Amino acid sequence: MAAGFLNKGMGPKLRWLYPVFGAAIGLFIVYSNIYSMFYPFLQAQFGIDTVATFALGASLLGAGDMLAGPIFSWALFDRFGPKVMYIGSAICLAIGLFCMRALGAGTDWASCQWLWYGGSFILGLAAGLRSGTAPSICAKWVPDNVGFATGIVAMGQGLAAFWMAPAATFLLANMGWTDTFTILISVGIVVVILLGILPQRLPDPSWKPEGWEPPVQDDPADDGSLPLNKAIRTREYWVLWICIFLTGFANFAFVMNVVPIYIEGLGAQGMDPAFVTANVTAVMLSITSVINCLGRPVWGWVRDRMKDTWLTLKVLYAGIIVSLLIVSVFYTQGVVPAIVAGCLVYFFCAGTSPVHMSAGPALFGPRYAGAILSTTLFATGFAWVLGPYVGATMKDLTGQYVGCFYLAIALCVVALILLFWLSRAQKSEKDPLID
Fold first, then answer.
1. Minimal CA–CA distance to 435: which of 346, 347, 372?
2. C-alpha to C-alpha distance for 247 and 416, rounded to whole angstroms
3. What's the pTM value of the predicted model, to 2 decimals?
4. 224-251 CB burial, b ≥16 within 10 A, e <16
């Protein structure tokens, strides 16, 4: 009976609904882009001035999303499919809701901090089960356009702040941060059930899109896919892994601290921090979420058209470097320059999701996509754990975020250098591993 339930769901005729539903779930359960909106309210409730204390919750959100989530995806997805993963996601959302409700009633940070840290981790795990599942199911149902399909999936998490930021601003002003979390998480649980648990399943093992043939590499007897134990023996795998970590650190150091960054920058222009939090950052997050959302399918499309993972990454990383340089200068120059500069960062960082997620299947084949994608997501997880906390700590120690910008830029430059090194090494060989 359980096996029958796991095999029920949409078939080949509706296969393009898998990336659409994956995007919709991300739209309602990925809270990362608005997480820093809650820092000022928690600081006021518990009388704490430092940012890093609460940014650690964002780091743990990332640990659940990109570290713990991929472990479960790696272990369970290829065997049980998406239903089990989304059931776990709904359960985690319910536990996270309980933690946040309990935290809202607390007054002593020493005894309540574990509710913030634990609840953040569990909410991240809920999103992480989706992060490992949605791209993997696309690799199986849409292997002929995996870059574009993955870009559609990534649109959901990119666009989440578009509606969450103004909704959270209104709810925070009228209901408090605890009830705000309650409403957002409750909606997420319903969406996971309706779009994840009920309609999704794995395709039959022998199924493939009409007219599509998988790439064949060394052995014509198979489909060219490398299992994880072989993929990790290639330098291409580790260059990809390191590059994902370095650029992910830069991304999360900015995104997960964006509210205090703009409070600092616009505060230099004499703006009241409360006004910046309640108005400017909410508008900015809505605008940048649209930019971020549109950037994901665009970069997925670019990757499919360029048909070269490494070249796409070079172009993408160069854009991230330039955009971070621009925002490091203009985030203190007024609302319009700060928002425009932020949009550039969000647009280029938007490309990391579809390009990185499609890189594994493109380089190593689609058959073991779940395992390979899950392990490369570990790189994003470690970056998410370190980026927000290191960025906030640099702010607390130096009084400004400029040092964090320079560190992020330097790491992206290292990633770009690695890609050029790999290209040079591949050209000197007869049969390099390329997609």
1. 372
2. 9
3. 0.73
4. bbbebeebeeeebbebbbebbbbbbbbb
| Amino acid residing at 80 | F
Is 424:347 a contact under the CB 8 Å cutoff? no
How do the pLDDT tens digits run along the chain, 435 residues long?
Answer: 466 787 788 988 999 999 999 999 999 999 987 888 898 889 989 999 888 889 889 889 988 887 888 778 767 887 888 999 999 999 999 999 999 999 999 989 999 999 999 999 999 999 989 988 888 888 889 888 887 888 788 778 778 888 898 899 889 889 999 999 999 999 999 999 999 999 999 888 888 888 777 765 444 445 567 777 787 788 888 988 999 999 999 998 888 888 888 888 888 778 887 777 777 777 888 887 788 777 777 887 887 787 777 888 899 999 999 999 998 888 888 888 888 888 888 889 888 877 887 777 777 776 776 677 767 777 887 888 888 888 888 888 888 888 888 999 999 999 999 989 888 877 766 545 544
